[in-house]
Write a structure and sequence with these properties.
The protein is mainly α. The protein has 2 domains: 2-170 and 258-276, Arc Repressor Mutant, subunit A; 173-255, Winged helix-like DNA-binding domain superfamily/Winged helix DNA-binding domain (Arc Repressor Mutant, subunit A, Orthogonal Bundle). 66% of the residues lie in helices and 7% in strands. The protein contains 14 helices and 5 strands. It has a 3-stranded antiparallel sheet with strand order 3-5-4. Strands 1-2 form a two-stranded antiparallel sheet. The protein is globular and about 65 Å long. Mean pLDDT is 85; it is low at 1-8 and 285-290.
């Protein structure tokens, strides 16, 4: 029974990671501005934290996000200041006067940022459902129930904290790829190609069109090649330079599996926490996440 259960778990995970790659990658293909803005994990995490603070404030369980508050949690003041200026220019956020201190600007998350985050979360929530970590129907609730969407993003603070801590201190394959511009996208492209090929994992050689991948992500071909060569040095991939084929190693596949099963469990935990949020009377606001 344990062997059968393990095999069922393997199949569920493969279905989940295949769905992950096939749903997340298209979000970034052809979106050169998005990849430029959110291509590094620091920027993505800062934007996620801003959205969490925004939704906490809408629910009356937290203060409005400001640059100072976000810097206090993440550091890197000069980098974050430039990043949020770019977000304002791209109209993902708006800076307005603080009601109690006109020297301070409140950062308001606008619909493009919240919609993009909700879409990304919905994809990973579906992965958690496929992997058996979350009851079926939660993704639909996130997409259709504005009240739950607001509470879920607010409850995602711990999830984002866990991700940020893991990526800062971890030494696995996902952490390594995520250190590079669009590194997570490249890792997903490798995984998608791997799982599209039949056979045992150790025999799945595939052709990775690196120039096409670079063009779709809006990054240089040399950057993709440098990351791929670095991954080979780390033991995450092997390359046949004669045929231009690539294969993923057991080390990379195990690292990616362990990270994503942990991450999807955090996604599921956030759903549980969202149901327990009770806004103070008179403070609850909905229709913010549209």
């Amino acid at each position: 029974m344990d062997v059968l259960r393990a095999r069922m778990d393997d199949l569920a995970y493969e279905d989940a990671i295949r769905y992950c790659a096939n749903s997340i990658l298209p979000m970034h293909f052809g979106e050169k501005l998005i990849n430029k803005i959110f291509g590094r994990n620091l920027q993505s995490h800062a934007a996620g934290l801003l959205a969490v603070m925004h939704c906490e404030a809408e629910l009356g369980i937290g203060e409005r996000p400001t640059l100072t508050r976000i810097q206090g949690e993440m550091g890197r003041s000069r980098t974050l200041s430039s990043f949020f200026a770019l977000l304002r220019f791209a109209r993902f956020i708006e800076a307005v006067d603080h009601p109690e201190d006109r020297r301070t600007k409140v950062l308001l998350a606008k619909a493009p940022l919240l919609d993009g985050l909700k879409t990304w979360l919905a994809h990973h929530m579906t992965c958690a459902e496929v992997a058996g970590l979350l009851p079926t129907g939660m993704t639909h609730k996130l997409q259709t129930d504005e009240d739950f969407s607001l509470r879920y993003i607010a409850a995602a603070r711990l999830m984002f904290d866990r991700v940020r801590a893991h990526l800062a201190h971890g030494d696995d394959a996902w952490c390594w790829f995520d250190n590079f511009d669009c590194g997570d996208r490249m890792a997903l492209a490798l995984l998608r190609a791997h799982y599209e090929h039949p056979g045992e994992p150790e025999t799945r050689w595939f052709l990775l069109e690196t120039r096409q991948l670079a063009d779709r992500l809006g990054i240089s071909h040399s950057h993709v090649r440098n990351v791929l060569n670095g991954a080979e040095v780390r033991g995450f991939v092997v390359q046949d330079r004669r045929t231009h084929h690539v294969a993923l190693t057991e080390l990379m596949l195990d690292d990616i599996r362990n990270y994503h099963l942990s991450f999807w469990s955090w996604v599921a935990d956030s759903a549980d926490q969202a149901t327990s949020i009770v806004p103070p009377p008179g403070e609850h606001a909905i229709a913010v996440v549209r």
